[in-house]
Structure formats: C-alpha cells, structure tokens
Design a protein that fits this description.
InterPro entries: Thiolase, Thiolase-like, Thiolase_C_2. The chain is of the alpha+beta class. It has helices spanning 28-43, 66-74, 90-103, 140-156, 160-175, 188-193, 221-227, 258-269, 287-296, 304-308, 326-329, 336-347, and strands at residues 10-17, 52-56, 110-116, 212-220, 233-242, 278-280, 359-366, 371-378.
Length: 381
C-alpha cells in the first residue's frame, strides 16, 4: 500500500513530562514550563527556535486565552498559538495541525503542551450532569461509559473478565514503571473482588485522577537532520473522527469514529493492523481499548473482549498495549503520555521495551467517545 507524501516527513523530536500523581500547589502553567524544558533538552535544541506553541487547555480549571498565558510564561512570541480543545483527542490533533502547518510553511518548529491538576485542584468537570436526561439522574462520566460497556456486553457477549484483562495488562506494565502514579500489579481475581461502581464497572475499570504536564517538539525530518536532533521518531500517519451525538442519541453505542480515524491513519501510513507491533490505546475505562481494537480492525466487531484476554495485550503477548501503564496505571492525565511512550518504544529506550517495535499505533479520544484521533509512528530515524 502506497504511503501519503507527508508520511515520514514530520518527526517528533523531543518529549518531556513532569511527575504524575498529586502535585499540590503546582499551577498548570508551571507544569507546562517544566515539561517544555524537558522536551527541549530531549530534542537538543534551543527555546528560541520554537515558533509555534499549541496548547490543550486544562479541563479542571478552564481559562480564557490560556495559550497566551503559556507562551508568556515560556518567554515566546509564536507565529501560531492555538488553544486546542477536543478533550483527550486534542493531543494527536495538535500533532496533525503542527504537521500540516510545518508542511505549509506556516511555522518551523512547534511545541505541543498540556497540563491539568484535577487531583489536587478541581475535578468538578468530570462529574457534571450530561444532557437533558440529567434530571433523571444520568450524570457524570462514569455512568455514560457504563452504559456503553453494558451495551457491548449485551450485544456481543463481552464478559467482565475481558474488561479485567485490560486492567491486568495495564497494571502489570505500570507496576514496573518508576514514573507511574500507581505501581501495583493486579490479578484477575483481585479485579473480580474490587469495589463495584456503576455497572458493569468496578473500581479497577476506571482511570486514575492525576496532576501532571507533558510536552512534545514537532518539526520536519529535514530540519531534524539540520539540527542534528539525536533521536527523531517519524510520523507515518494520522487521522481524525468526530461524532456530534450524545451517547444516548447514537444509533449504535458500540461503534465509534475510531473507524474513520484509524482508516485515515492506516491509509496515510500505507499500513494495516497486521503491520502494527505495539499499541498505546486510550484507556480511560477498560471498555475503550476493547472497542478501539475492533474499530481499528485488529479484530471483528464484537471480538475485542476475547482478543484482549489471555495476556495478549501484555508485554510478552501478541500486541503489547500501554507498555508504561496507560491511564489506568501510569497517569490519568489524558493522552499525551501515550504519545510519549510510543516515542520511547520507537527509539528502543522504553522502561519496558517490546522485543518487536517497528510500528506503533496510538489512540486518543475525548468526551464520551465523541472525539477520536489516531497516530502511527515508525522506528527512529
């Protein structure tokens, strides 16, 4: 399959992050500055070369013109300075926008960044009433994802043990990650015994609540060669998919726009699911990677549960997934940490390195599966 002309022309040149977990007293801007400094150091370039700053705003305490505050704190006057709000899908969406802007000559080198502090700040946004049905008690993120999971179970015979297999894999990987917020392995028996929440979910089905920040440096492959960037990782493909419907209005609760996003990314990369060696899939709840695997075409619709069972998503399985722990173990900070782990795997320097890691697929999604973005990375140049 032929690749798109833009495939491999853009690279992720640097990555950086703060600690994850409880960071009391830290502002979101201060965390971004720390993560950006780490990403610049990782790329081996000077701050003055940055001429675009793309920012995902914090969910917990939204601020008007937040991106301007970030650029001011960084001491930059960028050509491009958008505030990108797609929920968790914004991280890969920012890579897409940066890539297209670089190719169009609108900027040269972009800094992409995000931080939030719902653990020690406000997590009010995650428990807000949703839609007109809130008056009947349908509120909060957990209940809406629970409805989606119940539908998948009823429609396809997915078992709660399949959800548990996702949690077990992510917790196994996070338990050996020194940077993970939750470093405690989980057995399937422990999962079954964990506290029930909104059916069919147990406590271990839900992601962490985390403070933290992260940043990426994106530039062209040619620019990376000029600057002698030490470990650039090429972007092979990306895609987007969005739905405007609230969950209870959707004709099908078990299919998402990851279908569109994934097809776009695979076509751009000239690859198919069988060419992917490793995956970093958004796992705010355990049902999400199961459905994403189906929508990306790793298995047929309804077979994501069995596909995830028997250790197949663990580091020594068929498709190692979320090798730093994902949102279920490394940090609940949505999305950018998955890109960072994908970069580390493609560089061959991950804490838990997959034996075979040539191509990595990464998913981000936001809201209640309303937004989706896909990224495919190749081996470092």
């Amino acid at each position: 399959m032929a690749r798109h002309p833009l495939s491999e022309k853009i690279v992720i040149a640097g990555v950086g992050a703060t600690q994850f977990g409880a960071l009391p007293g830290r502002s979101t801007v201060s965390m971004i500055v720390e993560a950006a400094a780490a990403a610049l150091y990782d790329a081996g370039i000077e701050k003055a070369l940055i001429d675009a700053v793309l920012v995902k705003p914090p969910t917990s305490n939204p601020e008007m013109m937040f991106q301007v505050s970030v650029s001011e704190a960084l001491g930059l006057q960028p050509k491009l300075n958008p505030n990108w709000n797609q929920g968790g899908a914004a991280n890969i969406a920012m890579i897409t926008y940066a890539a297209l802007s670089i190719e169009a000559g609108l900027c040269d080198i972009a800094l992409l960044c995000f931080a939030d502090n719902p653990k020690t700040g406000s997590r009010r946004a995650y428990g807000q009433a949703k839609g007109n049905d809130a008056v009947f008690g349908f509120s909060g993120t957990l209940g809406q994802y629970g409805m989606i999971a119940r539908r998948h179970i009823e429609q396809y015979g997915t078992r709660t043990d399949h959800l548990g297999a996702v949690a077990v894999a992510c917790r196994r990987h996070g338990s050996v990650n020194p940077a993970a917020q939750l470093r405690k392995p989980l057995t399937l028996d422990e999962y079954r015994a964990s506290k029930p929440m909104v059916a069919p979910f147990r406590r271990e089905d839900a992601c962490l609540v985390s403070d933290g920040g992260a940043a990426l440096i994106v530039m062209s492959a040619a620019r990376a060669r000029e600057l002698k960037v030490p470990r650039p990782v090429p972007v092979l493909g990306f895609g987007q998919g969005q739905t405007a419907w609230e969950p209870y209005l959707r004709p099908d609760l078990t299919t998402t726009q990851a279908v569109v996003s994934g097809q776009t990314a695979f076509a751009m990369a000239g690859l198919s699911p069988r060419d992917i060696d490793i995956a970093q899939l958004y796992d705010c709840f355990t049902i999400v990677p199961i459905m994403t695997l189906e929508d990306y075409g790793f298995c047929k619709k309804g077979e994501g549960g069995p596909f995830s069972a028997d250790g197949r998503l663990e580091i020594d399985g068929d498709l190692p997934m979320n090798t730093a722990g994902g949102l279920l173990s490394e940090t609940g900070m949505p999305g950018m940490q998955l890109v960072i782990e994908g970069v580390r795997q493609m560089r061959g320097e991950a804490n838990l390195q997959a034996k075979r890691a040539r191509n990595c697929i990464i998913s981000n999604q936001g809201g209640i599966m309303q937004t989706h973005s896909t990224l495919i990375l190749g081996e470092r140049l």
